Amino acid sequence: MPGRCSAYRVFHSATGADVEPTGEISKLGHVDVDLPVSPSKLIAVGLNYADHIREMARTPLGTPLIWFKAPSSLLPHNGRIEIAYPAHQTDFEIELAIVIGKPAKNVNPQQAPEFVFGYSLGLDISDRDLQKTEKQFGRCKSFDTYTPFGPFVYANVDVSDLSIELRQNGQLRQQARTSMMIYSVAQIVSFANQSMTLVPGDVILTGTPSGVGPIHAGDELKAVIDNWPPLRNSVANAPNTSPVEKTKTNGISVERI
Asked: Residue 196 CB: number of other CB atoms within 10 A?
């Protein structure tokens, strides 16, 4: 049932261990849920939905586009997203997340599902001003709190055709199905582990559909995949944000902080 889950089902799904259930059911809004992962690597995939490629006026690469986000950007359910530079356009992006279960290196797409522990829900918060000026994705998406994640990780689920949607202050902003992804989970895992060894707990965000848009202080975001309990996060401006000024050194424009 959306919004409710038993502690037994959550614990058993995550560990496979047998526990003695108490029968007590708690509403998700009445408990504090910490991050269910602590990854060594937080990998993101871009340009994985055709409609998002069109809205961003980008050109498909022919292979998955991957980059790293700082694991310190992870934020739990009910956590507060803090906009690092309130004057910048900072967008939400909803994404299906993969959690790796076994070390993987040079695994082909047919083998890849065996190395996946489970799936969760993530947001890829993105500073578009920095993205446009720096022409890379690492810093603009790695500020603290810029990767809301959770509330739980789900094992043994078929994610090939799930609904995915995000609401901002109750208004539907993003809506798609995971079947619309250009590259499947298996293809993404296989592609990523050709370049690096994936280890248990590593997280891969699989890309966002169209409808991305800016967040502002006071916003409430609700992200849902299928009938999973929603991921909810509030938004505020980060305290004591230092302004970024442009200056020139030998004719080259640089930042002065």
From this structure: 14
List strands edge to edge, sheet with 203-205. 65-69, 42-46, 203-205, 94-100, 116-123
- Rounded to whole angstroms, how far apart are CA atoms 117 and 205? 14
Q: What is the mean pLDDT of the chain?
A: 89
**Residue 178 φ/ψ region, left for φ over 0, alpha for ψ in the -120 to 50 degree band, beta for the rest:** alpha
**In this structure, what DSSP letter does residue 198 have?**
B
Which residues of the chain carry a pLDDT beneath 50? 1-8, 10, 14, 256-257
Give the count of alpha carbons within 13 A of 179, CB side only. 5
Where along the chain do its domains lie?
1-31, 35-238
Q: How far is residue 146 CA from its own chain's centroid?
A: 9
- Which CATH number is associated with domain 35-238? 3.90.850.10
Q: Which two tokens stand for residue 53?
A: 């490629």
**pTM of the shown model:** 0.85
Instruction: State how far the Cα of 104 lies from the Cα of 123, in Å rounded to an integer.
Output: 25
Per the DSSP assignment, residues forming a β-bridge with 69 are 42
